[in-house]
Structures are given as structure tokens and as C-alpha cells.
């Protein structure tokens, strides 16, 4: 029942009305900018609406039996002042709305990024990086365009339509009947087209996300692509996705573009009818058939004013039909952004969860069963003990579940059955932050950020001193390289350290691990990116790093785990062999055959 209620609430938030009201919530958060914007909108449009009145009065003064140039001059000056002040207020309004939209975009990006940092690892395992980035960039930029421009246009349009209608009512009530035909036709057509177009813009946003995701994935692996001479294949697949995105854009923009010209035709038709009917009324008024003050009486200036107001009345309707395309795009983008914001974050710790401290490092897995999806079980009744200060190596074929064990130790995922304890305490009763702080991870895929080498190494421990960083670099056998650089430890690394070699990047991450004071260590093929000679030196340093720590090592090079206290062989999610290097070789099982295949 709770799940259904949550699902219903989420669907309600994602509906057209739900998205609209959520966007309104962002606008109202900055009410101190929005309220002045409304005031400037009212004054600007009121002055703009006064212009046709003064121009019409000037025409009537010129068309009279005796031309009164003083009245003509006065009305013309009033008209110019109204338009000039209206333009100035419109400029100020635009500045306010741009300011407000940028604040909203800042808030929205902040919320999306903070939500991404709180999401479980599983979210990133199932969503492409490029698609996620498109939410922060393209989708939010699309929303920004609507808030900074279209929102002003909508506010202006509403006031202009109402104001023009009031002025036209005062000028000639019979002529307003023309709009009784054309306005409903425009509204019905616009509503029909918007329902048709909205799904097309949702598809467009989704296809763009898929395109970005594929591009990011391929650019990341460009070296591998070139090494295997797969450029044409990759380009062909990109072109297919590019074609899908282009088709989605074309369909959305094509069907969206039909709305504007169609409504414009209806509005031009209404103006033509006004000119015809107004001309007939003016003829009757001139020959005396209709007396002054009668409902059908109209002057030449009255017709001029009515035509101008009818254009102001029809203009916003036509403009709204044009921006309906942008609104549909913005709503689709907002829907995708809110989908990220509404994602369930990593489950919160239990109310009674405690912080892990004074870690000894005894880890025990008892009958652990786990699957990423209910349909497929990855680990089946896994049990083993890692004693304090001992090293447990995990080997096995690809897909056997080695990395899954690490994911469970770090509580990136929670087990389906069984238990995992640290120092006799159930991991489910420990706060995630303190549990993860007890581990240090060195992964095969290095991660460095844009900053100095010092900052990247010191990332392993807050408030680390330069001397501590240097000692860690020395232990990792990377100090010589760093000191040979012109700026030494102040050398700035580009994004992900692409300005240094892959092996050097790995060594820096090892130095980062060495500076950490955690009691447990996870090594995932940590020396795979260095040559054999460097590997030997690194292995010595790694042995120093592992001293006194409980270590979990995933390795494909079995030479790196010969000294492990316990080696676990996992096949198809089950521990099939267990023991040290010599014991497993004597058994003559899978480990023995795997080792001999590498070194015979």
C-alpha cells in the first residue's frame, strides 16, 4: 500500500500540472524579485496600451471638420512618452527576470548535483554518465531559457490580452463579436497541438541524453577504439543515434512549428474581419444612419484604435502559440530534472545505528546471498573470515562475483540474506559513513581531480601536511617523478590526470591510500597499470602499506597474491577453494590450473 501511494505521488509530481506547480515553487522562492517583475509588467503594459488611445485621438483630431494641431501634438507626445517609458520598464523587467532565472538555475543545479552525490552506486551502474550530465547542462539550460524569456512573455501576454479587451469593449462592442469566433478557434487548435507535441519533446530530450551518453562512453575509450581499428564501427553506431536524435528534433520542431503559423492565420483573419466590419460601421456612422453615441457608432480614429488593440490582443495569442513549443520542451526538460531530484537516495542509517570506532579489522561474512536484481543471484551462501592484519585475496573468472564482494563490504549495496560483521558488529547496524571511513580503496580505474599533486594525495586524509604527503609519495615510489617536475608537488593535474602517464596516475592513487589511517584496505588490481619492473618496487611498497591492516585483494596477476594469508576462489558466486598459495597449488584445482596457465 505504501509503495502504491509513493508511486502515485511520484506520478502526480511528474504530470503536466505537477511539473508546472513545482516550477512555480522555484519562482515563488524568489518572490522579492518576482513581485517587482509583476509590478513592472503591469506598468509597462499599461503604458503600452495607452499608446493606441492617444494615436486614435490624434487621428480623430486630424479627421475633424477643423483640425486642432495642439490636440494632435499633445496626443502624439503622450503616445511617444508612453512607448519610451514602457520600453524602459520592459528592459528593467528583462534584467530582473534574467537575474531570477539564473538564481533558479543555480538552485536547481545545486539540488541535482547534491542528489547525485546522495544516490546509491546502483544508480550510476544503470545510467550513462553522458545522460546524467545532459540533465545538469542541456535540460536545466532549456528551463532557464523559458524562465528568463517565456515567463516574461506569458505575464505580458495575459495583461495585454485583458487590457486590450477592455479598451476594445469601450470602443466598439459589436466588433468584439469577431473574436467570439476566432479566439475559441485559436485556443482549441493550440490545445490540440500542445497535446500532440508534448510527447515528441519528451522523446527529443531522451534521445539527446542517449546520444550524449554514447558519445561520452566512446570518447572515454578512444584509445581502445583506435587500437582495434573500430573507428568506422563506432562512427556508424554514433550516426545511428545521431539520426534518431535528429529525427526526434525534427518531429518535435516540425509539429511545434505548425502551431504558430496556423494561429497567426486565424489572428490575421480576425483583423481582416475587423477592418471589413469596422469599415461598414464607419460608413453608416458617416452618412448618419447610425447616430453618435449609439452602440454601432464608430469614428475613423476609433477604427484605428480598435485595429491596434486587436493586434495587441491577437499578438500575444499568436506569440503564445509560438512559445508553446518552447514550453513543451521546457516541461519535458523539467520532467527529466525532477526525475533525478525525485530519485530515492541511499537508504538512511537505522535510528539506532552507531559509528564504528577503534577498528581492529576482523571481518566475517556468514552465508551471504546477494543479487543486483531479484531475477539473478550473484553470490550464494558466501562465508569466510578475515582476521585482523591478515590479507584475503579473491580470485576467479570474470563475472564470478569478486567485485560484488567488495561492493557489499563497503555497503554500496546491502545483502539479501546472511550477515557481514566488522569486529563482531553487524554492518547493517553501523553508519555507512563510519564503515566506509574504516576502509581505504585503491582501484584499477584511477580517479584524479583537477588540482595539484599535493591536493590529490592529501585527499586521502584531511589536514595532511606536506611532509606526510612526501613520505607517502616516497613509499609509493613516485617521489622521484614528482620532484623532477618544475613545480613539484604544486604541479597542477588536468581533469583525471591526463597530462601524466597511466602508471603515474596509479602510483599517485597508491600514495593517497598510504596517507590514509584506515584499518582495512581494499586493492582491486592496483598494480595492473605499471610495468613489471615498477610492479616489483610497488609490491614492496604495497607490503608496507598492508602491514597491520586487514586487506582484501582482487587480482588477476596471481604473482601479486602469493603471500596472501587466505586465497578465496569464487566461481559462479560460490567459494569453491580456500587456502594459501601453497595449499591451493597442492590441491590441483582451479587455482592451480589458473596459476600454471599464467606462469608455465
Topology (elements, then pairings):
Blueprint: H1 2-14, H2 16-29, H3 31-63, H4 69-118, H5 121-126, H6 129-171, H7 173-176, H8 179-220, H9 222-227, H10 231-286, H11 300-341, E1 363-370, E2 379-386, E3 391-395, H12 402-409, E4 417-422, E5 425-426, H13 432-437, E6 439-442, E7 451-452, H14 453-458, H15 466-475, H16 479-484, E8 492-493, H17 502-515, E9 520-524, H18 532-546, E10 550-554, E11 566-571, E12 574-579, H19 581-587, H20 590-599
Parallel strand pairs: 3-10, 3-11, 6-9, 9-10
Antiparallel strand pairs: 1-2, 1-4, 4-5, 7-8, 11-12
Helix pairs in contact: 2-11, 3-4, 3-6, 3-11, 4-6, 4-11, 6-8, 6-11, 8-10, 8-11, 10-11, 15-17, 19-20
Describe this protein's structure:
- It is a single chain.
- The protein is elongated.
- Helix content is 65%, strand content 10%.
- Mean pLDDT is 82; it is low at 1-8.
- The chain has helices at residues 2-14, 16-29, 31-63, 69-118, 121-126, 129-171, 173-176, 179-220, 222-227, 231-286, 300-341, 402-409, 432-437, 453-458, 466-475, 479-484, 502-515, 532-546, 581-587, 590-599; strands at residues 363-370, 379-386, 391-395, 417-422, 425-426, 439-442, 451-452, 492-493, 520-524, 550-554, 566-571, 574-579.
- Strand 9, helix 18 and strand 10 form a beta-alpha-beta unit.
- It starts with a helix and ends with a helix.
